Amino acid sequence: MDSTAMRAWARIDLAALRANVEALRARAPGAGLMAVVKSDAYGHGMVPCARAAIEAGATWLGTATPQEALELRAAGVGARALCWLWTPGGPWREAIEADIDVSVSGMWALREVVAAARAAGRHARVHLKADTGLGRNGAQPADWPELVAAARAAEAEGALQVTGLWSHFACADEPGHPSIAAQLASYREALAHAERAGLRPEVRHMANSPATLTLPESHFDLVRTGVAMYGISPVPQLGAPADFGLRPVMTLGARIALVKAVPGGHGISYGHKYTTPGATTLALVPVGYADGIPRHASGTGPVLVAGKWRTVAGRVAMDQFVVDLGGDSAEVGDEALLFGPGDRGEPTAEDWALAADTISYEIITRIGTRVPRVYVGK
Ligand SMILES: *Cc1c(COP(=O)(O)O)cnc(C)c1O
């Protein structure tokens, strides 16, 4: 697809994604790699990214919802896949029949998965999740023995196989945070208990991107990498993507829709939060918060236009925002680069995260469906 006639585009560099997967595998040489492709592969497009990750040696795929995992199967992606965010009603049976591994954090879910396996006439593959300190999903240490015993009993009866035991970090992006060692210790206890109860999982896994890069003792059998695979530094205080051997996969661009001269003292965009300091030229960038450009970056978001970084002038609107070219000229149809790897001088997703007081995960993930994805490096 050619982007020259597009209002805006997200260029997705699959060669960079494959190289990132290889760099991450080299960081965790004793473990397999689960490519986390939830939320449309963090906005990059789930199926093409899943395929590229597998080509580069990913051994598992991870999604949040069962619907996402079923979408992978519908597209013909057959790799091992785990999905972990369940609510009552499933779809457990569809997942079992599609050979999707399912996560169970509590007795309600275990009961539903066992019933679905009996109805399907085949066993479910289950990863039991321990809450080792995140306080989100997963079974509390006090509830773990009951969940393990019930899972072991269902396994003995043939309704399921416990294929994984897992947990998730709260503060892996803050190396040295005391919760990290505490969570590892709690996880080891959960594993030891499960082994004593007779469970023999295929994979034990805990590490997300920051732990994959900074905490080898958390790698166990499998690392679950999301943001780093998309070339974003999960620990920006420790280094930019390149410092970890990663390259941003998404470049977000738009085509300038209007350039015009205006006098000094001219209010710009809704609420007139910006007023031109003198006679100047303005360029109209045709993307807005409906495309995922944070309104919080009004007055602060950086854009490369006509060779220089400009700043969003006034408010980001639903479909567009304005930059003040300060008297420089630009042509209608010129590229405006919002973020990318940075090698053409453009800002990065991390620059937008700083401008909007958020994290780069949110910047890439929220780019909307109205922005076409253009795949290169296939
Ligand atoms: C999203 C997610 C990941 C991936 O996290 P990154 O920091 O993007 O690598 C891993 N595990 C779970 C449970 C997740 O929800």
Automatic annotation (TrEMBL):
<dbReference type="InterPro" id="IPR000821">
    <property type="entry name" value="Ala_racemase"/>
</dbReference>
<dbReference type="InterPro" id="IPR029066">
    <property type="entry name" value="PLP-binding_barrel"/>
</dbReference>
<comment type="similarity">
    <text>Belongs to the alanine racemase family.</text>
</comment>
<dbReference type="InterPro" id="IPR001608">
    <property type="entry name" value="Ala_racemase_N"/>
</dbReference>
<dbReference type="GO" id="GO:0030170">
    <property type="term" value="F:pyridoxal phosphate binding"/>
</dbReference>
<comment type="pathway">
    <text>Amino-acid biosynthesis; D-alanine biosynthesis; D-alanine from L-alanine: step 1/1.</text>
</comment>
<dbReference type="Pfam" id="PF00842">
    <property type="entry name" value="Ala_racemase_C"/>
</dbReference>
<feature type="modified residue" description="N6-(pyridoxal phosphate)lysine">
    <location>
        <position position="38"/>
    </location>
</feature>
<dbReference type="InterPro" id="IPR020622">
    <property type="entry name" value="Ala_racemase_pyridoxalP-BS"/>
</dbReference>
<dbReference type="InterPro" id="IPR011079">
    <property type="entry name" value="Ala_racemase_C"/>
</dbReference>
<feature type="binding site">
    <location>
        <position position="318"/>
    </location>
    <ligand>
        <name>substrate</name>
    </ligand>
</feature>
<feature type="active site" description="Proton acceptor; specific for D-alanine">
    <location>
        <position position="38"/>
    </location>
</feature>
<dbReference type="GO" id="GO:0009252">
    <property type="term" value="P:peptidoglycan biosynthetic process"/>
</dbReference>
<dbReference type="InterPro" id="IPR009006">
    <property type="entry name" value="Ala_racemase/Decarboxylase_C"/>
</dbReference>
<feature type="active site" description="Proton acceptor; specific for L-alanine">
    <location>
        <position position="270"/>
    </location>
</feature>
<keyword id="KW-0413">Isomerase</keyword>
<feature type="binding site">
    <location>
        <position position="136"/>
    </location>
    <ligand>
        <name>substrate</name>
    </ligand>
</feature>
<dbReference type="Pfam" id="PF01168">
    <property type="entry name" value="Ala_racemase_N"/>
</dbReference>
<feature type="domain" description="Alanine racemase C-terminal">
    <location>
        <begin position="249"/>
        <end position="376"/>
    </location>
</feature>
<protein>
    <recommendedName>
        <fullName>Alanine racemase</fullName>
        <ecNumber>5.1.1.1</ecNumber>
    </recommendedName>
</protein>
<dbReference type="GO" id="GO:0030632">
    <property type="term" value="P:D-alanine biosynthetic process"/>
</dbReference>
<keyword id="KW-0663">Pyridoxal phosphate</keyword>
<comment type="function">
    <text>Catalyzes the interconversion of L-alanine and D-alanine. May also act on other amino acids.</text>
</comment>
<dbReference type="GO" id="GO:0008784">
    <property type="term" value="F:alanine racemase activity"/>
</dbReference>
<dbReference type="GO" id="GO:0005829">
    <property type="term" value="C:cytosol"/>
</dbReference>
